[in-house]
Amino acid sequence: MPIPRLAFFHASPAVKVALTEWFTSYALPRKVDGERSIRIAHPDCDGLELKIKGAGYKGGPIRFDTLHNSNLKAPVFDFDGRMMEDIAFGHDNAFSGGASFQQTITEYQMSQFFQRTRMPHILCTGYGKLETETSTSWFSLHDWDPRLVRVTPHQVTPQEFATSLLRAGDELLSLALRYNIIGNCAYAKLGDEYFFVDLHFFRRLDALNVSQISWVMQVIFNLHLIALDAIRYLSGEIGPQLPPDVQAYPFRCVLPAATREDHENLRWTVVAPYMLGTPRNFSMGALLAALRLNRISHAMLELCPREFERP
Predict the structure, then answer these.
(1) What is the pTM of this model?
(2) Distance (Å, rounded) from C-alpha 183 to C-alpha 146?
């Protein structure tokens, strides 16, 4: 295999040596962490691991002949609320086992923002790129404490998982209201402290490009992704141990009495027709009417900051 060209940003000399060894041989001792991440011994910090996101496919090389094919939609919404697909956020602009430039830079910039605002998260310390003669893939670097536990029903109690959905809704809505930033991500925890992980889905919502209706659509979509996790677990063996309305928990930040029925109605009147693909016959009036009829989205229309223009 030809030796790739590597470039590093905000990485220490010791980290650069470790990364060069990894990307030239893929032979370092590592823990595989998902399809595109590994954790290796941290060159700078005893007791921590260095997580490389975009390190290769399942602990091996990046597959430059294959694009990641998640079919995960990552929509953005124009001023009228019409859906457009952001391919890079949805992974599919990245090679299998790698990351896109957009994902990597968003991880780093959001980590910088969270440090300034003192929001607990898994620190992204730097990033880099791996180049061959024909292709470029990106990776981000994270300080990882091996004692961290992912917040899923299989690693924490079902009640703790359900409570984390309420927490996520509250924290994400607070970011949207205070800083015009919205996204979705997961939690890891150490003891009683929760940390955001996977920050590459965040984006800033500014009043020049976003209206009330598109602000609401963006917030709904990101909370809905968290709700889908709850639905997935409800249908499995852990389901009977979860509250029956758990899928509505992320939306209780805006509607404290939100129910499963409220979310199911939102799924089929707003999410399915307006978020899963570009509508063929789009009408802002029809979308606005649908948003006003659902209790969750109606509450969000009222909550949207006044700086965003209203139709």
Answers:
(1) 0.91
(2) 26
Give the Cα separation of 167 and 151 in Å (integer): 12
Spatial CB neighbours of 180, under 8 Å, sequence gap ≥ 6: 204, 205, 206, 207, 305
Task: Give the number of C-alpha atoms closer than 13 A to the C-alpha of residue 191, restricted to the C-beta side.
Answer: 2
Residues with Cβ < 8 Å from 125, sequence gap 6 or more?
10, 11, 15, 111, 141, 142, 143
pLDDT tens string, the chain, 311 residues long: the values are: 556 899 999 999 999 999 999 999 999 999 999 899 999 999 999 999 999 999 999 999 999 888 877 666 678 899 999 998 775 555 557 899 999 998 999 999 999 999 999 999 999 999 999 999 889 999 999 999 999 999 999 899 999 999 999 999 999 999 999 999 999 889 999 999 999 999 988 999 999 999 999 999 999 999 999 999 999 998 888 889 999 999 999 999 999 999 999 999 999 999 999 998 878 889 999 999 999 999 999 999 999 999 999 99
Q: Annotate the chain with DSSP letters as a single string.
A: -PPPEEEEES--HHHHHHHHHHHHH--S--EE-SSSEEEEE-SS-TT-EEEEETS-GGGS--EEEEE-------EEE-TT--EEE-TTTTTTTSEET-B-HHHHHHHHHHHHHHHHHT--B--EEEEEEEE-SS-EEEEEEEEE-TT-EE-STTTS-HHHHHHHHHHHHHHHHHHHHHHSEE---EEEEETTEEEEE--TT-EE--TTT--HHHHHHHHHHHHHHHHHHHHHHHTSTTGGGS-TTGGGGGGGGT-TT--HHHHHHHIIIIIHHHHSS--TT--HHHHHHHHHHSHHHHHHHHHS-TTS---
Cα atoms in the 13 Å half-sphere on the side-chain side of 17:
7
- Residue 11 CB-half CA count within 13 A: 25
